[in-house]
Design brief:
The protein has 299 residues and is of the alpha/beta class. It has helices at residues 2-28, 33-39, 50-55, 62-72, 85-94, 122-132, 161-169, 203-212, 226-235, 240-260, 270-292; strands at residues 111-115, 136-139, 142-143, 157-158, 173-178, 183-187, 196-200, 217-222, 263-266. The strands form 2 sheets. A 5-stranded parallel β-sheet has the order 2-7-1-8-9, sandwiched between helices. Helix 4 (62-72) runs antiparallel to helix 7 (161-169), helix 6 (122-132) crosses helix 11 (270-292) and helix 9 packs across helix 10 (240-260). The chain is elongated, with a radius of gyration of 24 Å. The termini are far apart.
Length: 299
């Protein structure tokens, strides 16, 4: 009996040591999650729980990890070596969790919000503005819809629904909304030092940004007329029913934007519109630096 007990204790000690080594390799970055999951069925850590593996990842947040696992429908106490292919894919897409901040920005940071109805060219203006203003950091919205034909891969963070819902569960969005067939939202900004922040967002989102950042400057881009907007929507490949929805929603957005006190910019000529928005950005920067009492750099 003593020999059997000693064997059990030795086995338990070996298991604990193996798990400790696995956690050390994960937390140090020596072993990444994808490799860990791929090798798990035949690895010494096969019986380690999913939760233990995920909590060992760099920067892991225990409460958020458990919440996201619940959102994904993955058993936290299950053995990592017995995960199915679908669950492995969900975990690889969602972990490590994206950094979540409280959204606070450094003193003197200007916040510019560009909104407008679909098809008015606000995305094109933002891309051109970023080419001219390297010290401008764009808070990319997340979306679960597919990329449109010819759409820039950097226009959004194109996420799976599971990724999006996991980020919602982790508290990572300033705002998000569910449309008819997809989710879209703005993550809390976490910009690097020395840049100003731009949100390209719908009007409802602009209102939330303005509530969180009262000094934000709100720009509303519009087409010169409804016929031009409709032609642009059709030109980018939108279906006819979606075009009708966009045109109807545009009327609501214009009324809401007016109530917010936005700065209107009509996108009749691209370069003229870009220059106008660039001038608004310069004013936002000057105001932010003055309020914070910091030098007017980065403009």
């Amino acid at each position: 009996m003593t020999a059997d007990r000693d064997q059990v204790l030795a086995w338990a000690a070996a298991v604990r040591a193996g798990r400790a080594l696995l956690c050390t390799r994960l937390s140090s970055g020596e072993l990444d999650l994808a490799t860990c999951l791929r090798e798990a069925p035949d690895a010494p850590w096969s019986d380690t729980t999913v939760l233990a593996v995920l909590e060992a990842l760099p920067g892991a947040r225990k409460v958020d990890t458990r919440r996201v696992l619940t959102q994904l429908g993955v058993d936290a106490t299950g053995a990592v070596g017995r995960l199915g292919a679908a669950d492995r894919t969900r975990l690889e897409r969602c972990f490590p969790l994206a950094p979540v901040t409280d959204g606070r920005l450094r003193p003197g940071t200007a916040v510019l919000v560009v909104s407008g109805p679909g098809g008015v060219g606000k995305g094109t203006i933002v891309r051109r503005l970023c080419e001219l203003e390297p010290a401008l950091w764009v808070s990319r919205s997340w979306t679960t819809r597919a990329r449109r034909p010819g759409e820039d891969a950097e226009a959004y963070h194109f996420a799976t629904r599971a990724e999006f819902e996991a980020h919602v569960a982790a508290g990572g969005f300033l705002e998000w909304v569910e449309f008819l067939d997809y989710l879209q939202g703005s993550p809390l900004p976490c910009p690097p030092p020395g840049v100003d922040v731009l949100f390209e967002i719908d009007v409802a989102g602009a209102a939330l940004v303005a509530d969180r950042y009262p000094e934000a400057v709100l720009v509303f881009v519009d087409a010169p007329d409804a016929a031009t907007q409709e032609a642009r929507l059709r030109g980018r490949g939108d279906a006819e029913d979606r075009i009708r929805q966009r045109m109807e929603h545009a009327r609501t957005e214009r009324a809401a934007a007016s109530a917010l006190g936005v700065v209107p910019v009509v996108n009749d000529d691209l370069e003229t519109a870009v220059a106008e928005v660039r001038g608004i950005l310069a004013g936002a920067r000057a105001g932010a630096r003055e309020r914070a009492g910091v030098p007017a750099s980065g403009s």
